[in-house]
Amino acid sequence: MKTKIRELRKARKLSQEELAGAVGTTRQTITSIEVGKYTASLPLAYKISHYFGLTIEEVFDFSDLED
Known about the structure:
By secondary structure, the chain is mainly alpha-helical. The chain is 57% helix and 6% strand. It has a single domain, classed as 434 Repressor (Amino-terminal Domain) (Orthogonal Bundle).
């Protein structure tokens, strides 16, 4: 799944570690989400989106999941 996390994080000059700490996960999880190897759970997707002041749909691209 594609996300805008990397772009949002870099625009705010946040490290993966800083974002991970803010949303209660690990740097490795943030890395995996950014490169598309891991899909965030709904609670984590909410926390990340809320952190940036955006909706889940604004951060995560669900177009590849639509039938």
